[in-house]
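Archive entry. Fields below.
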Amino acid sequence: MLITQLKDKETIVSLTEGKKVFIINCHGCKEVHFPEKEAKELQDEMTADGKVTGILTTDYICNPDNLKLRLEKHAEEIKAADAVLVLSCGVGVQTVAGYLEDKPVYAACDTYPLPGFQGVTPLEYDCDQCGECYLNLTGGICPITACSKSLVNGQCGGSKNGKCEVDSEMECGWERIYRRLAQLGRLDVLKCPTQVRNYATDEEVSKAE
Amino acid sequence: MKITEAFERGEFVVTAEVGPPKGCHIENMLEEAKTYLSDITAVNVTDNQSSVMRLGSLAVCKALKDEGLTPIFQMTCRDRNRIALESDLLSAAMFGIENLLLLTGDHTKLGDHPQAKPVFDLDSVSLIHTVKQLESGVDLGGNELVGEPPKFAKGAVVSPCSDSVDVQLAKMERKVAAGAEYFQTQAVYEPEKFIQFMEKAKQFGKPVQLGIVIPKSVGMCRYMNANVAGIHIPEEMIDELKADKEKTKAGITGVEIAARIIRECKPYCQGVHIMAMGWESKVPSLLEQAGLR
Ligand code: SF4
Ligand code: SF4
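PREDICTED_STRUCTURE:
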């Protein structure tokens, strides 16, 4: 189980500024505290502004086969969009980003842990429910799970032949992130401010409940 | 003295590094440092290098300082969370240690305590940011420090011959943005690659010291080629070491090679950092052959 929270409105607005977006809502996991109302208001507002090319509301987008079928039905609307905004946990966002390789895919939510399982048997993608989803800064590849040190500010000095210093069988997560951003023409996001992880967030969320 | 002052004076800055012993006796180490490293700008002290547990960097920095040398305190993020890191930074300032080299650190799996918990609460970039924050009189938790805040020369590392040099450059840019003031590089054996790297790195406007490890033997070169990130020693260089076994064993060939690399790269960088790895005694002759003495 997990809790997804909407990122603050400013963040979402700045992510999508001047862009047409296709929106995907995932209602798969029982998200106990998801702010349905705010999420809907935000989407209504964006639709009224003429920013939205289409909305897909479905469940378990982390299932790649399901997702593929559903996205195919919206192929035209996705094509017309400059970016795809995903309201789901980190695994869902990564599954979409993996499928739509040449489209910027943005996470509109942060994922916090709750005991229990996440999504439907995520095979390829992993989310550690870190509470401040970094996928918008990393081309949709999770730095917490794809990098052995969970680095959030870039590659360490340990990668050799593209492999991680900890495991020569594992591709360096930051090489993947860099490649993906280069492919999207978005290497500029690497110039973002220094990221300092916040281990207090999950506690604050549960305190706020 | 801050190492950044030497860069500002336009000096070609020479530093070397010492690795603390696995034990609590440093007489030999201090003697060697005093004999061979006392006329260079500063001496790095490694922080549990390669994740192998050793005597602490901060304590050895203090001992070097007491002997009249200028230490550079190396700090990694592997073993301490932000509270311990900030506290050690204040301790360093109290001892009058002014130079830092801030690194992420190797993973615990690579060292002699693979069972240990890897911390990485911060990383090299957020550690640089943390030092800057302390310098402004506020800690990372947002709390004010009492009295005059510390002031350090903030150094960082970069790997210029990495097979993913663009990814390294992107990280270097983030370090500069966070407040890094000078860089020391991974050991360089391919001057052309280093020069190409410097062409791109000079846009950041920060001094870069060429990293040098004297090649000791054919076996060491083969080992580094297979296992050490960012290092590729060309076959011709290994052949040079093969040619005269006695000369190689005496360190003469290795010093010749290292001096040649320094001479080739010198016009493109602002200093050299020598990682002697037990060959501290070779540093004076290396500097002489490189035309730096
Ligand atoms: S950055 Fe990774 S661990 Fe954190 S919420 Fe996003 S997908 Fe999950
Ligand atoms: S080599 Fe790559 S994946 Fe491994 S710890 Fe370093 S940055 Fe992370």
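CURATOR_NOTE: The first helix of chain A runs from residue 9 to 16.
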